[in-house]
Amino acid sequence: MAEKKEQAVAKREKIEEILSFKIGKQEFAFNVDSVELVIERAEITPVPKSRSYIEGVMNLRGRIVPVVDLTKLIHIETEADQHFENVLIVKHEGAEVGFFVNEVREVINVKESEIDTGARTDQLDQKVRGVVKRGKRLILFMDIDQIMKACEGE
């Protein structure tokens, strides 16, 4: 009887699809619904006097898209000589932003109960929804609302 109850709860549990990606040695993820596309690194035009985390802007099919270094935005230290191979284009509430990433890993189905929200730190608290564990991997599941607000300087 208890087993059937657990199965019924599991069936109703919300499942999210997340796209995992690496920046340096750290793995992150965004909800798949917010990811528009992944492209190879394109020419980035620096913008004078912009915020430190804004690397510049790029022309994406005629649209000007700001490109952000996520590690600077959320204050995570990485290796000094990062070479980013890809740009992850995120679209949220009409705004588009590109994020430098080293590697796009995979799409993962995650149950709501698999997102550990107790592991957040004070500095990352607003921008990280939680941590997803996959084997030995720890993936920081980013809160796209908070990330986009931070990109806008709020």
Walk me through the structure.
- It is built from three helices and eleven strands; from the N terminus they run H-E-E-E-E-E-H-E-E-E-E-E-E-H.
- By secondary structure, it is mostly beta strands.
- The longest helix is centred in the N-terminal third of the chain and has 11 residues, at 2-12.
- 15% of the residues lie in helices and 47% in strands.
- It has helices spanning 2-12, 70-73, 144-151; strands spanning 15-23, 26-31, 35-40, 54-60, 63-68, 86-92, 95-101, 103-111, 115-116, 128-134, 137-142.
- The chain has a single domain, classed as Beta Barrel (OB fold (Dihydrolipoamide Acetyltransferase, E2P)).
- It is globular and about 60 Å long.
Number of strands: 11
**Number of domains in the coordinates?**
1
The Rg value, from CA coordinates, equals 17 Å
What summary fits the major beta sheet?
6 strands, mixed
Q: State the helix count.
A: 3
What is the general shape?
globular
Question: Given the helix and strand composition, which structural class is it?
Answer: mainly beta
CATH-scheme architecture: Beta Barrel
Which spans have pLDDT < 50 for at least 5 consecutive residues? none
CATH superfamily: CheA-289, Domain 4
Order of helices and strands: HEEEEEHEEEEEEH
What helical percentage do the residues reach?
10-25%
CATH class annotation: Mainly Beta
Instruction: Report the span from N to C terminus.
Output: 50 Å
